[in-house]
Automatic annotation (TrEMBL):
<dbReference type="InterPro" id="IPR022496">
    <property type="entry name" value="T6A_TsaB"/>
</dbReference>
<dbReference type="GO" id="GO:0002949">
    <property type="term" value="P:tRNA threonylcarbamoyladenosine modification"/>
</dbReference>
<keyword id="KW-0645">Protease</keyword>
<dbReference type="InterPro" id="IPR000905">
    <property type="entry name" value="Gcp-like_dom"/>
</dbReference>
<dbReference type="GO" id="GO:0008233">
    <property type="term" value="F:peptidase activity"/>
</dbReference>
<dbReference type="InterPro" id="IPR043129">
    <property type="entry name" value="ATPase_NBD"/>
</dbReference>
<feature type="domain" description="Gcp-like">
    <location>
        <begin position="49"/>
        <end position="139"/>
    </location>
</feature>
<dbReference type="Pfam" id="PF00814">
    <property type="entry name" value="TsaD"/>
</dbReference>
<dbReference type="GO" id="GO:0006508">
    <property type="term" value="P:proteolysis"/>
</dbReference>
<protein>
    <submittedName>
        <fullName>Peptidase M22 glycoprotease</fullName>
    </submittedName>
</protein>
<keyword id="KW-0378">Hydrolase</keyword>
C-alpha cells in the first residue's frame, strides 16, 4: 500500500549513503520516468573521521545545488555488514534526517550490492568476501548473472571461508576487500586452486552509480533500518578482559550484557 506521503516522497530526491568500509559515500538522485538520474555524488576515505565529514558534506552538497533536506523524500543506507562505527554513524544520520524531513527509509545489504556490479558480466558462481577483522571475513555466494543466493551471509575464519568456497566447486570468481586485506593467504590459495579468478580491487567498493541503482530498487517504508552486524563486536569478544580492567566480575558483566540484549 502506498500512502499519500509515500507518493509525495517518491517525487523528491533519493539520498543513498554508505560507510561500511573505509570509503564513505553519498549519492543524490532525482526521479525520472525510468528510475533515478544522478544529481551529485561524493566520496571520502577518512577512517575515524566520518562523523566530522558526513553531515557537513551533505549540507555543502545541498547548498551548492540550492537545495535543502526538505527536498529529500527517500533515504537508503548500506546497513552492513562492515565497520560497526561506520554503520552506526550512517544509520544514525539517516534516522535523524528522515525524522526532520519526513523521508521514508530503506536498508541495503552490502555484499549483495557489491555482487550487482560484476554479476551482469559473469556466468557461474560468484563469492563476495569482505574484511571483517583480522583473520575473519564476511562471505556470501551468488549464482550469476541471476543473483540467486547459493550460500547465505556468514562471518568465517580464512580457513573456513576457503573450505566453504571449495565446497561450491573448483571454479568460481571471488571479489571483495577480504582478498586485499589477506593478500598473502589468498595468493597462496590461488596457486594451488587455479580455477578461481580473483577480481581486481576496482570492484571492492560500489561505484556511485551502483549505489544509486541499488537504492532505487530498495524497499522503502517508514520503519527504522535494522543494522546487519552478522558477527559479535570486538568489545563483546573481549568482555572478560574489559570487565577485569574496570574491576568488575566478568560473569556479572556478561549477565548484564545478556539482560540488556534480551530487553
Amino acid at each position: 500500500m502506498i500512502s499519500a506521503d509515500s507518493f509525495h516522497n517518491s517525487q523528491k530526491l533519493l539520498l543513498a549513503m554508505g560507510g561500511t568500509e573505509e570509503r564513505l559515500q553519498l549519492v543524490l538522485g532525482k526521479p525520472t520516468q525510468t528510475g533515478y538520474q544522478m544529481v551529485a555524488s561524493r566520496e571520502w576515505t577518512v577512517p575515524r573521521e566520518s562523523l566530522r565529514v558526513l553531515t557537513a558534506g551533505l549540507k555543502e552538497t545541498l547548498d551548492t545545488l540550492g537545495l535543502t533536506v526538505s527536498d529529500i523524500g527517500r533515504i537508503a543506507c548500506v546497513r552492513g555488514p562492515g565497520s560497526f562505527t561506520g554503520l552506526r554513524l550512517v544509520l544514525a544520520a539517516a534516522e535523524g534526517l528522515a525524522a526532520g524531513c519526513n523521508a521514508s527509509l530503506a536498508g541495503i545489504d552490502y555484499l549483495a550490492m557489491l555482487a550487482r556490479g560484476p554479476a551482469p558480466l559473469l556466468s557461474g558462481t560468484l563469492h563476495v568476501m569482505t574484511y571483517a577483522r583480522k583473520g575473519l571475513v564476511y562471505l556470501r555466494t551468488f549464482n550469476t548473472p541471476s543473483m540467486e543466493e547459493i550460500f547465505p551471509l556468514t562471518s568465517l575464519s580464512l580457513d573456513a571461508a576457503t573450505e566453504q568456497i571449495l565446497a561450491q566447486g573448483t571454479q568460481a570468481v571471488v571479489m571483495g576487500s577480504g582478498l586485499r586485506k589477506n593478500q598473502t593467504y589468498f595468493d597462496d590459495f590461488q596457486k594451488t586452486h587455479t580455477g578461481f579468478t580473483f577480481l581486481s580491487k576496482i570492484w571492492d567498493n560500489a561505484s556511485p552509480e551502483l549505489l544509486l541503482e541499488t537504492a532505487a530498487v530498495a524497499e522503502f517504508d517508514e520503519a527504522h533500518i535494522t543494522p546487519l552486524y552478522v558477527r559479535v563486536t570486538d568489545a563483546e569478544d573481549n568482555l572478560a578482559d574489559i570487565a577485569k580492567k574496570r574491576g568488575l566480575d566478568p560473569r556479572e558483566a556478561r549477565k548484564r550484557l545478556d539482560e540488556l540484549q534480551n530487553r
